Amino acid sequence: MGGMTFDPLNEIQGQASFALESWVISDIEIDPSNGDVLYSVGNRFDFFSGATFFQFFKSTNSGGSWRGSGITFTALSEIEIDPTDARRIYLGSSTGIFRNEDGAENSGFDFLSSGLPNDGNVAVTSLAVDAQDNATVYAATSAGVYKSSDRGSSWTLADAGLETTLARILRDDPMNAGVLYAGTISGGVFKTVDGGASWAPTRNSVTLLPVISRRDLVGSADFDGAGVAGGEIVSFFALNVGPEVGVGAEFDAKTGKLPTELASVRVFFNDVPAGMFFVHRGQVNCQVPYEVIGLGSVEVRIEVDGVSSNVITVNILDSHPGIFGSVLNGTGGVNSADNRIPAGNFVSLFTTGQGAIQPPLMTGEPAPLSATRHVPVLPVSVTLDDQPVMSAVAMAPTFVGLLQINVIIPANLPPGEYEVFIQIGNQRSATGIVIYVS
Question: How far apart are CA 13 and CA 405, in angstroms?
Fold first, then answer.
């Protein structure tokens, strides 16, 4: 009926008990030489004993009835049938790879361990037999992709290029020997054309173009996405916006500023380049250019290896205060429940999103170690449990876009935990931070 209706095929014969409908089926394969022969693997939890049972099933009448093998494994997940010799069957499980040579009729399954880590006890998520050379078998495991040239009797690691991500599923090219595709966890699709000697990501407009959306751009301090301010430290959490391995920036030896290009990644606000802190495939940290101050909105894009992302429109705020997580005690160390600040002393908050500063700094320029203090143009205020407290404010020396606020803890403040908020101009920090007082 072309999928319009389905009939249950749950009758079990042989050594496995309970109807097939009581088993969780994780894979089904059809004998490539005989469409009436089917294989499946499943698991069943027994509520009375608390045990989980795993089983391999075979049907010779198109699923009209199934025969349990009577052989139990742990967490069977994958069946792979040799496309040129259907009597050879491979099974993948949470504890390794198994092989049968007679169509699961009499001989049982052999455990294949030679060359695999942990004596073969690795989780296997996918298997593939080369259709042009059935002696060649590939396995995606929790320890990487492995290859066998002797039908699974021995294995060698074959994951060059896949070291930073795990393959979840393997598919071979039935027309070309040595060509294989790997679907990975968080890395897209990879391809090998040399039998697993080297892998490279497939490249197309869907998976590898940098893609951003408005919700991907947030303040780095508190991940608030209401807008951005000139000079603010911000983060993109997006797709394909940097290299596979993260790269951090160093100050340019000639200019003394952050680079505007890092590992072939650039961020533009109305075509003005941002100062770059860090780039990674899924994250970019940068400083919003001071040049956007006074604008109502800007167009933002990320460029990777000369390829531009889509463009998003972002609101520009006069300020967008956010507090970073670590508070330093003036008496030493990080403020915490175990290292409280005595009343009458001060703590240092580190924030960003201050907007315009005076005297001005250039985009990517760290505040200098000098007698001149660079301070926000807009007024800054601090509340401790909604009560105003005194503070001293200046851009943190040697840092880019980082505002340091030294908050005076009132001498008569009882011991306890107090929530601090900051306000710059008309904007209050979206979240506060707790200060521990002794």
Answer: 75
What pLDDT shows up at residue 243? 87
Structure tokens at 160: 């060059």
Which of the listed residues 201, 232, 266 is the one where a domain comes to its end? 201
Tokens of 338: 């175990």
Query: What's 231's domain CATH number?
Result: 2.60.40.10
Question: Using an 8 Å Cβ cutoff, are 94 and 85 in contact?
Answer: no
Cα 9 from chain centroid (whole Å): 40
pLDDT digits (tens, 9 = 90+) for 281-316: 889 999 999 999 999 999 999 999 998 999 999 999
Residue 247, pLDDT > 70, answer yes
Dump pLDDT digits (tens) for 379-431. Answer: 999 999 989 999 999 999 999 999 999 999 999 999 999 999 999 999 999 88
pLDDT digit string, tens, across residues 78-109: 899 998 899 999 998 888 899 998 887 766 78
DSSP state at residue 119: G
- Judge whether 90 and 103 are in contact, CB under 8 Å: no
Torsion of CA 290, 256, 217, 310, to 10 degrees: 90
Give which of 369, 412, 410, 361 is closest to 390, Cα–Cα: 410
**Helix, coil or strand: residue 322:** strand
Which tokens sit at 286? 């940068």
Q: Give the helix, strand, coil percentages of the chain, each rounded to 5.
A: 5, 45, 55
Residue type, 259: P
5 within some domain: no
Tokens of 45: 């939890």
- 144: nearest Cα among 108, 184, 104: 184
Q: Check whether residue 255 and residue 336 sit in a common domain.
A: no
Phi, psi for 118 (deg, rounded to 5):
55, 40
User: From CA 246, how far away is CA 330, in angstroms rounded?
Assistant: 33
Between CA 425 and CA 434 the distance in angstroms is 22
Residues facing 92 on adjacent strands: 78, 97
Residues 75 and 380: their CA atoms lie apart, in Å, by: 59
**Domain residues for 377?**
322-437
Tell whether 2 is covered by a domain: no
Question: Within this chain, do residues 182 and 264 fall inside the same structural domain, yes or no?
Answer: no
Q: If you search the block for the tokens 């020396």, which residue do you land on?
A: 397
